[in-house]
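Issue 218. Parser rejects a valid record. Input:
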Amino acid sequence: MAFSEVLCIFALESNYQTMYAKYIKQEIADLNGTGRTQAYYKMELTPMNYEQFVSLCAREGHMEESQILGVLSLVSEKLSLSMSEGYSVKLDGIGTFHAKLGVRSDMLQDAFEEGESTRNAKSIQVSGVSYRADPELIRITRNRCVLERGGISRLRKPALNLEERTQKAREFLEKNMFMRVPDYVRLTGLSRTAATTELRKLALDPSSGITFRGRGSQKYYVLSK
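Output the parser choked on:
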């Protein structure tokens, strides 16, 4: 029996009371130059810890919590083992999992070139886990979700203008060898998305005095010579 079918049985057999989930309307920066900020909607999340989830499964499935704990522990252990061996694991009704790789954080990203790579296995590590939800899980979640309006989240307006932010970045780089996006966020008060976009533009503008090195997650910013 697929996990999605189990969820349906739980829903039918239980006296589960419909809970209303709240959505938040969030303002995001104008990244397309339209002159207007954009809006997107996200769920207002309520944390559920491991013990609460186990208790919910045990109650709805008429099982002992120790049984649920045993199954979840086994799934977690064997899932990590399978991914570490290079498997893409598909769990019906849940989704597909596989490991993601990246260059170690203490090493700079290299460019792709023809010929033999200068990298070895010790310089590459698992950087995360990729998860793609099963369409059936999405469908069941959508059908059971009843939404009501929550709050509104607006953009924080930076206290400094672009010229002042650029000057702060140059002063930081005069005292430090390099700067990353989190440093610029702390300096300027911008969101991470806005800071990333602005630094990218500054690095392409010769008059800013700032350029970049590296690629992807290894990108950092320095003073241009």
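Fixed in the parser; the record now loads. The chain has a mean pLDDT of 84.
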